[in-house]
Amino acid sequence: MAESGRTDIVLKGIGVSPGINIGRAYLVDGGRLETPAYCYLDSTYIQLEIKRFKKAVQESKDQLLKIRDRLLKDGKGKEHISIIDAHIMMLEDKMLIEDTIKTIKREKVNAEWAIKIVMKEIREFFDSIDDEYIKERGSDIDHICDRVLKNLMGKRHETIADIKDEVIVVAHDLAPTDTAQMVKGRVLGFLTDIGGKTSHTAIVARSLEIPAVVGLENISQKVNAGDTIIIDGASGLVIINPSKKVIKEYQKKKGQYFDYEKLLHHYKKLPAETQDGRRIRLMGNIEMIDEIPSLIDHGAEGIGLYRTEFMYLNRKSLPSEDEHFEVYKNVAEKVTPHPTIIRTLDIGGDKFLSQIELAPEMNPAMGLRAIRFCIKEPEIFKTQLKGILRASVFGNIKVMFPMISGVEELRMAKNIMEEAKEELRRKKVPFNPKIFVGAMIEVPSAAITADIIAKEVDFFSIGTNDLLQYSLAIDRVNEHVAYLYEPLHPAALRIIKHTVDAAHNAGIAVGLCGEMAGEPEYALILLGLGLDQLSMNALSILKVKKLIMSIKYSDAKKIAKTALTLPTADEVEKFIGGEMRKLLPEEYAGTDHR
Ligand code: PEP
Ligand code: MG
Predict the structure, then answer these.
(1) Would you state the torsion angle of the CA atoms of residues 193, 199, 200, 206, taken in this order, to the nearest 10 degrees?
(2) Residue-wise over 37-56: b if at least 16 C-beta within 10 A, else e?
(3) Which of 346, 460, 533 most suits a substitution to test ligand 1, by most atoms within 8 Å of the C-beta?
(4) Handedness of CA 155, 160, 164, 167 (dihedral sign)
(5) Strand, helix or coil for residue 298
(6) DSSP symbol at 488
(7) How far apart are the first and last CA of the chain?
(8) What separation in Å is there between the alpha carbon of 442 and the centre of ligand 2?
(9) In sequence order, what are the beta bridge partners of 437?
(10) Which pairs with CB-CB distance under 8 Å and at least 24 residues apart come from 315-318?
(11) How far, in Å, from the CA of 216 to the mean position of ligand 2?
(12) d(CA 229, CA 160)
């Protein structure tokens, strides 16, 4: 039992994949190895250590190849496989292999200790980069090194695929390769000491719909195998060895959650239409193809935002035109007849790619980012555009440019797209010449000049994650100013309204694909402001649809109008909370000012 038989130990972590489950703990040794250190080795031993190290690397590669084969046989998606491929590639990484061998020689230490030294150096490098996503990639290095260390030390690798009972997996950390092997139903959830929302592990958990809480700091030390665990993947709450009373309470909550999910599924086939006939298109955001089945299962009417950056990650070379084409064709075929909006590469700011070296910048969020980078590197941009264009004959594909700040920038992007079209024409490669082109409206200057930009695109998609960052001057990844990141700030509401009106005056559709779209209370205002489309994660779609179906558009417009008169985000929030309680009393009755 955990901590000398205590019950009801409550821990709070980061909920990265929703759902409630109660089960027995299954401890997976995800790291935390006590590494032996031997120093001042003589030359014979140094040669032996190098040999041992090379053998352990080869064993690690063989194990990963085996997992890869098994996943392929199980028919798992390509994204899972590519994560394993990335890990195999890391085992061939010069920095890791050669530096470890050099360290064995230079420091005259054993292989285990040398790996620790090199791992620390690489980790420090990743940690020094002020970027959540890159920091997470550093954890891939940890997984690889741990595997090599275990092989050096003769430790067995627990494989999650071998789990027979229904359990909650507890680990210091899990590699995406572990998560990819999890089977829903057998793995009731997982808990880790470290991790964040943007880690591959979290992304895979969401796509497999397995409840998960990460960032629990030391849960792997607090829990013993067989302990009873409650996991609430939405709130990030974990209870170790709950009392009978708490178990009963959570069984009830789980039942309610299950009933709620089931009830929401009634909405799957129903149109997202207000009671007076305003139809909204609810779409999904994806980073990887594996997320598509879950989106379709939740009734998404297309993909409103395909963040293609994921295609460029965890690899040494840039994707080729053919690769782009194959991936986009695959996505479009899965989603057709619904549309797929492919956003072109959005690198820079808080997203970096290993193959593209960007100069350090004082203000990367305002630097060479997204479309600015693509205009500067037209060949990289054209390669992607040609892939998109070629795929456009296989489904309803639209292109969207990120971070457009004004019409001139839009024109430059469109000119490069024309060049891409011309190159395809010359080679007689088919594409849809009338492919829709849209602009993301996420920079205030674009929102303010939306009437000008609207004349030269087929649609808008408002990216509130960035639009809020730039309008309110709040770094979206800085936890110290997070309290000022207010989606209901009067400035945010006005700027959204202005953009929607500009789009409608020009006769084009306008969607919104920032995180705001997936919260029913925000969606209420967005509906009233006149948005035509909302794009969000799979698990939010039915909640938002229920909200839309519970109200008349005329009433939503009145609510938005009143909200626009209120002076502070807090007052808007209180007002909206009151309206939500009236509309959906069973869900919002217990909330005071939501
Ligand atoms: C946004 O900025 O709102 C958006 C959807 O794009 P991203 O979060 O990828 O920057
Ligand atoms: Mg953005």
Answers:
(1) 80
(2) eeeebeeebbeebbebbeeb
(3) 346
(4) positive
(5) coil
(6) T
(7) 39
(8) 6
(9) 399
(10) 315/82, 315/86, 315/89, 315/354, 315/355, 316/89, 316/354, 316/355, 317/355, 318/355, 318/356, 318/380, 318/383
(11) 29
(12) 18
Q: Is 39 a catalytic residue?
A: no
Place of tokens 């194990």: 63
Name the residue among 296, 266, 301 with its Cα closest to residue 282.
301
Nearest CA to ligand 1 atom 3: 463
Query: CA triplet 263, 266, 271: central angle to 5 degrees?
Result: 135
Rounded to whole angstroms, the Cα distance separating 497 from 272 reads 21
For residue 357, what is the DSSP state?
Answer: P
Catalytic residue among 80, 143, 172, 200: 200
- Maximum alpha-carbon separation in the chain: 84
Cα angle: 278, vertex 282, 287; to 5 degrees:
160
Q: Of 351, 312, 284, 200, which Cα lies nearest the Cα of 541?
A: 284
CB < 8 Å & 24+ apart, contacts of 582-591 = 583/524, 583/547, 583/550, 583/551, 584/520, 584/546, 584/547, 584/550, 587/260
- What is d(CA 465, CA 445) in angstroms, rounded to the nearest whole number? 15
What the block records as the tokens of 401 is: 């440019």
Within 10 A of 422 (CB to CB), how many other CB atoms are there? 10
The Cα–Cα gap between 282 and 518 comes to: 10
Token pair in block for residue 133: 């996503």
Query: What are the backbone angles phi and psi of residue 21, rounded to the nearest 5°?
Result: -145, 155
Q: Are the C-beta atoms of residues 392 and 404 closer than 8 Å to each other? A: no
What helix, strand, coil percent values describe the chain, rounded to 5? 55, 15, 35
70/84 Cα distance (integer angstroms): 12
Tell me how long the chain is: 594
Which of the four pLDDT bands, split at 50, 70 and 90, describes residue 355?
low
Separation of alpha carbons 205 and 226, rounded Å: 22
What separation in Å is there between the alpha carbon of 307 and the centre of ligand 2?
10
- The finding on whether 524 has its CB within 6 A of some atom of ligand 1 is no
**Prediction pTM value:** 0.70
Kind plus residue range of the DSSP H or E element containing 441: strand 436-441
* C-alpha closest to that of 298 among 264, 337, 260, 332: 264
pLDDT digit string, tens, across residues 362-413: 788 888 889 999 999 999 999 999 999 999 999 999 999 999 999 999 999 9
Secondary structure (3-state) at 492:
helix
The candidate with the shortest Cα–Cα distance to 112, out of 194, 28, 30, 39, is: 39
Q: Is 513 part of the annotated catalytic residue set?
A: yes
346 in ligand 1 pocket by Cβ < 6 Å? yes
The yes-or-no verdict on residue 180 having pLDDT over 70 is: no
User: Residue 367 is encoded by which pair of tokens?
Assistant: 């630097």
> Lowest-pLDDT range, 62-66, 117-121, 136-140?
136-140
